[in-house]
Amino acid sequence: ANRKIRTYWVTMHAKVLASICLLAACQLSSGFSDLQANRDLFDDFKKTYNKAYESEEENERRFVHFSENMERAEAAQRGERGTARYGVTQFSDLTVEEFKQFGLSQNPELRAKRLPEAVIPEVEIPQEFDWRKKGVVTEVKSQKNCGSCWAFSAVGNIEGQWAIHKHKLISLSEQELVDCDKEDQGCEGGLMTSAYKAVISLGGLMSEKDYPYKGKNQTCSFNKKRAAVTINGGVSISKDEQKMAKWLFKNGPISIGLNSYNMQFYQNGVAHPQPKDCDPETIDHGTLIV
């Protein structure tokens, strides 16, 4: 009887060991497969965005960041409550810290400055509204490898206001603000509130055609005689989304700040992230609501 028990135990023990070995082999195989898939994605990424690194060590370091970011993109996709799609973008080889350099200024003195509060109109909000369909929003522009989102956000707002009130849509110069707004930090970040004050102080904005975007800090070459538009002020709109919608519907596109954490991998669609990704204390990217 003891021999039978020992035989049975040895047989079961061997089966368990075999199962463990098979499981380990599957895990190793899966891990290798994921690694190879990421390597293939990384090679495609480099070709698509013309990425070239100075050394093999830098290439491998960027591959590690890329692989980690693909996991973050998958997590963002799992948590997405809207229609947004996340995946490979031109920023997929950057660390979180590097990507944040493309965002808003974290200067507390600048952030403390506010514009006068806006009067919110009493209007009924429609189910759907899009200022692009009204011809007051220019085509999507790229800030390139420059932390000038604040300039694009402010300029987009000014373009919309000018088009609504003057009945003429003009693509305006973000580069002017990058070069000439001395309160903000050009490609190192800024704030929309400061940008409006700079436009007033300078005497207007030139057109994109006359002062084209280069995506880097340059010497200011603003020519007041060639200013395409001027502004005389700005307002601060409530953080209440219903009030924001009312003001937008009545008055035009709004310059806003948002959390850029998932935007590093954003490809398209309407984003509706999890509450944990919407901390008002970590707003770091300027954009435009239309």
Automatic annotation (TrEMBL):
Domain of life: Eukaryota
Organism: Clastoptera arizonana
Keyword Disulfide bond: yes
InterPro entries in the cross-refs: Papain-like_cys_pep_sf (IPR038765), Pept_cys_AS (IPR000169), Peptidase_C1A (IPR013128), Peptidase_C1A_C (IPR000668), Peptidase_C1A_papain-like (IPR039417), Prot_inhib_I29 (IPR013201)
GO MF entries: cysteine-type peptidase activity
Record GO biological process: proteolysis
Name this polypeptide is given: Cathepsin propeptide inhibitor domain-containing protein
UniProt keywords, alphabetically: Disulfide bond, Hydrolase, Protease, Signal, Thiol protease, Zymogen
Gene3D superfamilies: Cysteine proteinases (3.90.70.10)
Family: Belongs to the peptidase C1 family.
Pfam families tied to this protein: Inhibitor_I29, Peptidase_C1
